[in-house]
Amino acid sequence: MALVADILMVAGTFGAAIYCYVLAQRLKRFATLESGMGGAIAVLSAQVDDMTKALDRARGAATGSATALEGLTGRAEAVAARLELLLASMHDLPEPKPEPDQPDMAERKLRFVRRRALRDDLEAAE
Prior knowledge:
Radius of gyration: 45 Å
Number of helices: 2
Distance between the termini: 122 Å
């Protein structure tokens, strides 16, 4: 019985050794920087760094644009306030009286003049 237990123990140990060897080989292939997952992780890490830098640049540009837009909005509001004030002051002016020899714009008829194109510019058909 002890001999059978020893044989089973050696077989189990041998199986565990083979299992550990296979796992070690897989781990080596997984961790290699050139072709395995390590390479993919290194590439992804570099891409994350590049994207972080691009995001920082975009954030800076957006902040600058927002600041410029706030300034322009402030200027536009000031100009709009001035225009409203000017428009309000226009209501206080008396309306101009039409001159007696000038007809009203409503009574005037618009005339359209058409001019023919010069015939010299046209080519003759052969």
